[in-house]
Fold:
Amino acid sequence: MALYLLFTCLSFGVPNSISETYYRTFGSKWVFSGVLFAAASFAVAPLLNHTSESYQFLAFFIVAGIFFVAASPAFRDEFEGKVHTGAALILCFATIAWLILTAGVPYIAIAGVLVGIIRRREFIFWLELGLLANLYKEIFVLLF
Structure:
């Protein structure tokens, strides 16, 4: 996912959100969904295995949120947009809650918000990037 975002940002500039990269990909709309499906697939086992049972439902919401965003990438479409937005919001709030319960203060996510405040037009992108970077960093820490 990091390589996909880096390549997209270098090729087309920083988007308003990660989901906007769906419309910027190189003639292949499936790339966005494929990257998200892969990211969720790699996260599902570590998230579910290393999360306390008392809030394991958050891990499920995180993975389901990524899958639903990947399955409905065309957020500008009326119906898909509702599914996409709902899944993205669930993913956002579940990730924040999981990070706080698992790791304490989500510093990378906070850094993303601060960059987003400076670069207001891209606020959502930096928020999403901070949350996902923090999430995958914590998954890496849990595994090793």
Summary: The mean pLDDT is 95. Helices lie at 2-12, 21-24, 30-49, 56-71, 78-103, 107-118, 123-143. The chain has seven helices and no strands. The chain has one domain: 16-143.
